[in-house]
Write a structure and sequence with these properties.
21 helices, single chain, five-stranded antiparallel sheet, alpha/beta
Length: 724
Amino acid sequence: MIRISKKTLDDLEFDTILNQVAEYCNTDLGKSKVALIVPYSTKERLHIALQEVFEYKSSFLNDARIPNHGFDSINKEIQLLNIQNTFLEASNLKRLVSISATTNELLHFFRKNEEHYPTLYQTSSKVYFTKEIINLIEIVIDKFGEVKDNASSKLLVLRKEINSIQGKLNGSFGKDLSKYNSLGYLDEIKESVVDNRRVLAVAAMYRRKVKGAIMGNSKTGSIVYIEPEATLKYSRELSNLKYEEREEIVKILKELTNRLRPFIDLLQQYQEYLSDIDIVSAKSKYAGLLNAVLPKITENRELTLKDAYHPLLYRANKIKNEKTHPQTITLDQNNKIIVISGPNAGGKSITLKTIGLLQVMLQSGMLIPVHEYSRMCLFDVILTDIGDNQSIENHLSTYSYRLKNMNYFLRKCNDKTLFLIDEFGTGSDPELGGALAEAFLEVFYERGSFGIITTHYANLKMLANELPNMSNANMLFDSKTLEPLFKLHLGEAGSSFTFEVAQKNGIPYSLINKAKKKVERGKIRFDKSIANLQKERSKLQKTTAGLKTKEQKAEEEKERLEKTNQRIQRKLESYQELYDSNQRMIYLGQKIDDLSEKYFNNKKKRELINEFIKIVEVENSKRKKQSAKQRTAEKAKTKKIINEVKEKVQVIRKKKKEEKKKEERIIASKPKVILTIGDRVRMIDGKSVGTIDTIEKGKAVVNYGIFTTNVAVDQLEFVERKKK
């Protein structure tokens, strides 16, 4: 069972990650659920969550994009459905139609595209597909959110009567309006509406001239609003009909609501499903922002992070258009604990937080910004001691708090634990605190825990150097400027450059010398030795890099010259063979020409034939004569060689077929990109990249610039999407 404490999540600023993910949610329910994300407690559920995000992210490259999953919350509607004798208004029912239609569209899409999204399909297959909710509501409610006239026979009759009375009322009002307007009794606005009734805007001085009910007057009192006497009876009749209409609508809505009550659990499931999809979508979009990938998750005890970025720092620097330095680090059975040392402000704490935060993100179902060849195992417990640990509430000092924390570590640490401790052992007397920190570290080591600590204590550096499965590391600094390079180097402890940094910041040299005298000479020599080693290593690295570059260039030049030499040698040999053959032909031609000229002059056929036979015999004497047995043996030998070649060719072909099938399986296991016109592609076995001109009946015309070719679509491999 995986359990990671809230303190660990707070130390690693995981809540900031969740806030950033929530920005990509489309729904309020999705945002509220993102805030509750914690690492998964089981490996099975974690693997499903990671695959869902991976598949959703791959959909951004496909034309078969996942449909919209946005919805309005139906918590109020579900609450009303759970209370007997309540009913849903038309606007509430439209929300139910909307959420049902959205869910059905997604379920149908994943069913249709199971090959591209297998995990998302498996998740969606647990949700029941039905159009019954939509059908029940759409019989009663129209597309404008109103109850249909034919929802019941009584409602249809009532609405016909209402329309009839409304027509009579309007006709009667129109007559009175024309009449009183012609008499000059009405104000300029002529009419108005009071309590949903049409009234005449009568000038106050003529109010006794107009028969009807006074409904009110203007603020100034210059206008009196009167409903004409002739329309009063129609208004009363219309009010009665409206009342009956509302009663009938309530009756219809109650009946419909009762029919929908059996679907309460399904509607709740729809809402949960869509909000979960919203979270998957948000994680995928966030992964796109960070260029995040899904690393290899291994069952072996191994944590190999290549080109790992701190996600919060990466995003902040991306906004400011600044560079973020990635880290590469490995923990395995042969290197369980790493002790990072070196001066402050070199990136030790960021390295620590990067590893912890990426591990927590992965175990919470998120893709992480690392190289795709990274390998990660899962930890049951992640323990952290990072940042300011002074506890004001409990009146504990930093060191007391840290000791309390170490006691917790001792209870929880085992071979499935990752611990991350910043400035290990600080807060007390360096001698005593360092000794206690060393004892703690030995316990963690004996229990087989994986961990990374940062420290300035020399005894911890020495311990890491002595134990076989523990190693030192340091953050590289420029030996001349003492500027941090933000690069982790494994294998050696780092100097704190205490006096060098002080000198660089303008502290008087005499004061630094005075301080050196107050420290044991052995410690200064030890720290100085480490500092000198770091400087020498920095020089060696530059020299090695330069030599490697030169060696590589020399090797490449040697290979190029060898190839050129072989090519020239082959050409010389072929030219020599051609020259010898030509010389022989010239010689024979000259002989025949001499014979021809001789025969031309003397016309002696016998002499001509004898001379020609001599030339042929001389040429034949140069040929190697073989007996019938030798010829048979030669043929048998040739046949054997041909058969051996054929067998080798068959073996090579069989091997190539197996490799091709393996490649096809790998390609088939990857999410397929649907190709469109304008995409950059190449043949699966080829290197040349071309552009798709047309696609028709499973075949594509690919333009390579100087020529075009017709290729089956399944033989093409996606390279780059058409730039818009």
